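Sequence of N-acetyltransferase domain-containing protein (Shouchella lehensis G1).
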Amino acid sequence: MRVAVLNKHDFVEMRMLFLDVFTNEPWFDKWSSEEQLNAYMRDLTENTNSLSLALYDENDVLIGCSLGYVFNWWEGREYFIKEFFVSRKEQNQGVGSAFLELMDSKLKANGMKYITLNTEKNVPAYRFYQKNRFSVSSDSVFMVKRLSE
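Predicted 3D structure, token representation.
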């Protein structure tokens, strides 16, 4: 397996992988609008501070992605993961953990000091991230304000 910046030629495959992972258990996202999905994917991959990392298997098949942003902070550069996903066929086999380890090396080599992310406590991803040395920050809280329609 190898980690590289997502090849633009793999955008359609990445989008299909994203849909397969997140429209199934435990997420059940309802991406009914192709236009909305494409806008979301462009938001994640086409900003000046976007960093889209891909996990390729030994046959150079895309099997995972980490889509996020790089921010400069007083303590150094930070990679914020907005979406992290691995092919459902590869899940529960250590592939996601291996992906994170490979990412660590690549990010450190590019001057990153931190990896940050948000996830829900009631999904398997929460335990997965804890197992991979992510910790809950006692100094931060994720807040949401729904705007009425």
